Amino acid sequence: MRSTTTPADASTDTNLLFRRFGALIVDGLLLSILVVVTVLALGFVGDRIVGLFGGPLSTVFIGPVGSPMFMLLTSPLVGLWVLGPVWFLGYYVLFEGTTGQTPGKRLFGLMVLGHDGSRCTVRAAAIRTVLRAVDGAAFYLVGAGIAVLTDGDRRLGDVAAGTQVVHARR
Question: pTM score, two decimals?
Answer without folding.
Answer: 0.79
